[in-house]
Specification:
By secondary structure, the protein is α/β, with parallel strands linked by helices. Helices cover about 40% and strands about 20% of the residues. The protein is built from nine helices and nine strands. The relative contact order is 0.16. Strand 4, helix 5 and strand 5 form a beta-alpha-beta unit. The chain has a seven-stranded mixed beta sheet. It has a domain of about 170 residues: Vaccinia Virus protein VP39 (Rossmann fold, 3-Layer(aba) Sandwich), CATH 3.40.50.
């Protein structure tokens, strides 16, 4: 079983993920004319990291919605401009066409029925508005050199927790009733980033792979990973998909 993370640790992880995809989000915000949006929804808002960025990027009302009461409480304590509510992505508690922009970030892979969640995001977005799927990973496309099996084991751990590690490649299919513009963030870390992120990444791997990989094998892999980083041969490529769906909602 994976070790439970504290809310502070989740907030740190959400902040790290947001850092990896910031340039893509800014591109999507411009294309969706976020600055002029009157109402914005962030689905699966977690601790509010991306939600507060959305609030700082528009003059309009911003609501963050999450299914976890503890996450909602944590986000409210941030003291930002956004409003936070408890709710389920599969049954959004809003009327049709309520929002100009509906967004999510590393959320659909955790939904038990991502197609239902996608339909709900489109339903609550007004005709002419936009749905922004800012980041969804695809562990099936991960490349490690040397091959340390980390991607395959991490995908297995995610499946055991109810996630879909290959959700990224399915975005166009999920939003096939809309005008989906799908792209991919290469996710290729340079040597300096690998060194900087290694400790925190291994902290997450050791949690998520507990019960999947024997502790001795994990220790061996960590040593091999560090040696490859220091020698300059380590390569990690992780595709992360995004999508902008225009003219979403009820027509």
């Amino acid at each position: 079983m994976a070790t439970e993370m504290t809310l502070e640790e989740w907030d740190e992880q959400f902040s790290r993920q947001a850092g990896w995809t910031r340039a893509t989000r800014r591109h999507l915000y411009r294309r969706a004319n976020l600055l002029r949006a009157r109402r914005v929804l962030d689905v699966g808002s977690g601790t509010g990291v991306v939600t507060e960025e959305l609030a700082a990027s528009t003059r309009g009302e911003v609501i963050g919605l999450d299914i976890d009461p503890a996450m909602v409480a944590f986000a409210r304590q941030r003291g930002g401009r956004a409003e936070y509510r408890l709710g389920d992505a599969h049954d959004l508690p809003f009327p049709d066409g309520r929002f100009d922009v509906t967004a999510c970030h590393f959320v659909l892979l955790w939904c038990r029925d991502p197609e239902s969640a996608a339909k709900e995001m489109m339903r609550v977005t007004r005709p002419g508005g936009a749905v922004l799927v800012c980041a969804e990973p695809d562990y099936g496309g991960r490349i490690d050199y040397p091959d340390l099996h980390l991607g395959r084991w991490q995908a297995e751990a995610l499946r055991s927790e109810g996630a879909d590690p290959a959700l990224g490649r399915k975005l166009r299919a999920l939003f096939r009733t809309g005008q989906a513009d799908v792209g991919v963030i290469p996710g290729l870390w340079d040597p300096d980033t690998l060194r900087a992120e290694s400790g925190r990444e291994w902290g997450l791997w050791e949690r998520s792979l507990a019960g999947v990989v024997p502790p001795g094998e994990l220790a061996r892999l960590r040593a091999a990973d560090q040696a490859a980083i220091e020698s300059g041969e380590r390569l990690v490529f992780m595709p992360v998909f995004y999508a902008l769906i225009a003219n979403a909602g009820v027509s």
